[in-house]
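Why do we care about 3D structure at all? Because function follows from shape, and shape follows, mostly, from sequence. That is the central idea of this module. The next example makes it concrete: a single protein chain, its amino acid sequence, and then its structure expressed as tokens.
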Amino acid sequence: MESWQIKLSQGDSDTAWDLFVERYRRLIFATIRHLATDYDDVMDVFASVCEALRENDMARLRRYAERESHGGRFSTWLAAVVRNQTIDWFRHRDGRKRVSSVVAELPPLHQKIFQYVFHESRSHLETYELLQTRDGCDLSFGEFLSALMATYRALSEGRKGRLMRELVGVALPPDVDVVAEPGATAPDIGEHLERALAALTSEDRLAVQLFVIDDMPAAEVARVVGWPSAKTVYNRVSRALAALRVAFARRGIGSGDL
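And the structure:
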């Protein structure tokens, strides 16, 4: 039982909250920054998350602490809660506006592809045909593939892309009808990556996110995830990355394709 949980069980919610924030402030900020880049947004989301976790005498944290059993570590659960709170904050504030602003930065052809694929839920083949018949685009199939992949990359790269994936679902639809051979396309690789990451344990996924993506020091990752030392982080992340490489190799994807 952590110190904040002991104080919470004793009815001292003010002290429990102070201990909780001191213990998990960095994890909360790291999770928020995974989706937000603007400093003011990060601070506003942090305030919103803290308000939600503290409301009703820390009811959400209390419910977790009072469970008889847990499926994973508290840090993993907390990261998931903060991630969902962050997404909800952006959706409530400016989900449509944010999507529109990102799409407006795309070239005209890519905007059309976004409209058909993501807004109208058209298949890739339908999109290609509509571009030719409705929009008068004189595109070869290979040129369309290149534009399609460029659209996916523009919408899914970086922290802005991570948020876009949540707001509009920038993921390869199930009706993949334009896979170019040989080798995997950029959308395919993104889908394979999601599947490979899903095969890792929740702790390993969190460690990979914090250590590799968010560049958090190994010692801090160990503290957040609950592992004994930085060496454990190096070993576990190394094994996780090796597992990802094996998963890619089984799908015929090499380092040169990434």
